[in-house]
Amino acid sequence: MVSEDIERRREEFLLIMREHGKKSPAEIVASVSETQAALLEVFSSVPEAQAVRRPAPDEWCLQELSEHAVFTERLIGKLVHYVARSSMPPAEDLEGAGLGMMPTHAARPYAEIMEDLQRVNAALLSAIENLPKEPDREMKVPHPFFGPLNCLEWAGFQRVHDLDHVQHAEKILAVVRG
């Protein structure tokens, strides 16, 4: 699933990712941690009773959106780590990858998802902080909407993904809080 905001701002977001491809790990950590915190703040402001309410029958609730955020960020962390070292994550780490990806396990308590989001936030920042001195910037792995991205651009994609889901979460909240 690609949001209307992403479609409308595709070139702007591609520029953000390309710029991250030129930044130092410390600059990327600062940039990504800012949007991670913003998304976590929005998600954490909601009790589970509201998090499970759908804004419409065919739309994700916050619990599903947050589960998607965890699933996606875990994959991005793996891509940053492995692609920087000129390799690909193991096949099982790529299972389910694609637009709108969502884990196949049963729904979990919202508090558990929030704890998991904090863990994957930290894991991604660690992957960025522990990049090799000269990460492979030539190897690229395609994103289904944005095209080929190197390890640093994938880290920049996390910023874009978080920004998109902050606005998505706020739209959901506007409906479920009424």
Q: What is the fold's blueprint, element by element?
A:
Blueprint: H1 4-8, H2 10-20, H3 25-44, H4 48-51, H5 62-83, H6 91-94, H7 110-129, E1 141-143, E2 147-149, H8 151-176
Antiparallel strand pairs: 1-2
Percent of residues in helices comes to 55-70%
pLDDT < 50 stretches: none
DSSP helical segment count: 8
Shape, per Cα inertia axes = globular
Main β-sheet description: 2 strands, antiparallel
> What is the CA-based Rg, rounded?
16 Å
Distance separating the two termini = 25 Å
Order of helices and strands: HHHHHHHEEH
The CATH superfamily appears as: dinb family like domain
Q: How do the strands line up in the largest sheet? A: 1-2
Stated plainly, the CATH topology is called: Four Helix Bundle (Hemerythrin (Met), subunit A)
Instruction: Give the averaged pLDDT, no decimals.
Output: 91
Assign the structural class, choosing from mainly alpha, mainly beta, alpha/beta, alpha+beta, or little secondary structure.
mainly alpha
Structural domain tally? 1
How big a fraction of the residues is strand? under 5%
What is the count of β-strands?
Answer: 2
CATH class: Mainly Alpha
CATH architectural designation: Up-down Bundle
